[in-house]
Amino acid sequence: MIRTLCCFVSLSVSALAAEGAADYPDLPPRAAVEAAIKNSPDALAAQAGIQVGEATNRRLRTGEHEFSMRVAGQRRTVDSSERFREWDVAVERPIRLPGKAVIDGKLGRAEVTRSQTMYGDALHETGRSLLKSWFAWNRERVQANQWAEQLVLLRQQAEIVARRVRAGDVPRLENGLAGAAVALAESALHQARLREQVAANDLAQRFPAIALPKAPLEFQPAPLQQGVEYWKEEVLKHNHELGVARSESMLGRLQAERSSADRLPDPTVGVHVASERDGGERLVGLHVSIPFPGAARSARSDERRAMAEMATQREAAALSRVTAEAVNTFAAAQAAYGGWLSAQSAADKMRSNAELMARAYSLGEMGLPEVLTARRQALEANLAAALARLDAAETRYRLMLDAHQLWLLDADEEGEGRTRY
């Protein structure tokens, strides 16, 4: 029984993992997305920033105080007749007080955390940019395809008009009207194809790893299953912008604490060896020097405290901004889905109406201007429905991306093997 239960749990976990790693049919393949995001200049720059943070951590832990050597030589004259060569050698080093070393260790760890969070933020922002460019190309592609379909229908309509003109059923004027409608559709199609190519070039230049499919699959968007509180919590839990603000706030507090500790200067300890009276006297000594703190140290401490307060307020502003953005994105996703349902229903009715009017024209029961008007209205309704479908899909994917539930990338968060983006 226990073995059966374990097998069931294992299979369930494997199924969930496979589901989370699956490709979305109306998005680029996950492997291509990972390659495009990780190899983007912003992500690579942020990855180098992690090395900067680690080097800063080592520097802070080691301390910046170094050994120094002081060498002095002199000649002593006694009663204008005796002259002695003398020298003095000293090695000294400032000593970082223990409390400051502890703070520097915390500062170093905070620098590493911030650099890792900034890398995650770069991955997330690049993912946002990729998603936006992908749907921008899809919008232009859909519009071009709609105009191509409209052109086919108008050409068929023009053939019907030509047959009726030859039969003497309608005036030759309708030939001109049908031809003008075809010419306008051809012009609109050329412009739409140009915009599609521009969007494709932009996507290819920015994300070379993304190969554009010739005929992307078009799936109906899915509604959101959870409420606003769930999505707000998920976005706040994973938001890197907020994480960066929190890291900088923590750094500001630690730097203020470090500057306050610097009001007590570090002592300098050294040993020296001296030779006097041509080596007749040998001296070995220990010396300690302590700077007298001045007003600059106090002003620097006040400066760091003010900067820490600025960072704290920026963190609060980031929290408010991210929360509002999450709520607005959820509302936009819900509204876009409802708008798509309405637009699709209207498009189906307008398309059916246009087909009926075209059939009525072929039977001589309807005028050509009414048919062309119905065709134009059906095209506008179809375009609106197609764009509404893309809007609904994009806003849902954007919310999933912000909640780290869309794509899988290497984790930049401590304790996780992989993190969703």
What's the tally of helices? 9
Q: Which structural class should the secondary elements be placed in? A: alpha+beta
User: Spans with pLDDT under 50 lasting ≥5 residues?
Assistant: 1-21, 411-421
Number of domains: 1
Query: What distance lies between the first and last C-alpha atoms, to the nearest angstrom?
Result: 38 Å
The CATH architecture term is: Up-down Bundle
**Fourth-tier CATH superfamily name:** Outer membrane efflux proteins (OEP)
| Overall mean pLDDT | 85
Main CATH class:
Mainly Alpha
Principal-axis shape equals: elongated
Number of strands: 6
Helix percent band: 55-70%
CATH topology: Outer membrane efflux proteins (OEP)
Q: What strand order characterises the main sheet?
A: 1-2-3-4
Radius of gyration of CA atoms, rounded to a whole number? 37 Å
Query: Order of SSEs, N→C?
Result: HHHEEHHHHEEHHEE
Q: How large a portion of the residues is in β-strands, by DSSP E?
A: 5-15%
Largest sheet: 4 strands, antiparallel
What does this structure look like?
- Helix 2 (30-38) crosses helix 4, helix 4 (98-167) packs antiparallel against helix 9 and helix 8 (295-362) runs antiparallel to helix 9.
- Residues 1-21 and 411-421 have low confidence and may be disordered.
- This protein has helices at residues 2-21, 30-38, 41-62, 98-167, 173-206, 228-238, 240-261, 295-362, 368-402; strands at 68-78, 82-94, 268-276, 281-289, 408-410, 418-420.
- The chain has one domain (38-404): Outer membrane efflux proteins (OEP) (Up-down Bundle), CATH 1.20.1600.
- It starts with a helix and ends with a strand.
- With 421 residues, the protein is of the alpha+beta class.
- Helices cover 69% and strands 11% of the residues.
- It is elongated and about 140 Å long.
- The strands form 2 sheets. A 4-stranded antiparallel sheet has the order 1-2-3-4, with no helix packed on it.
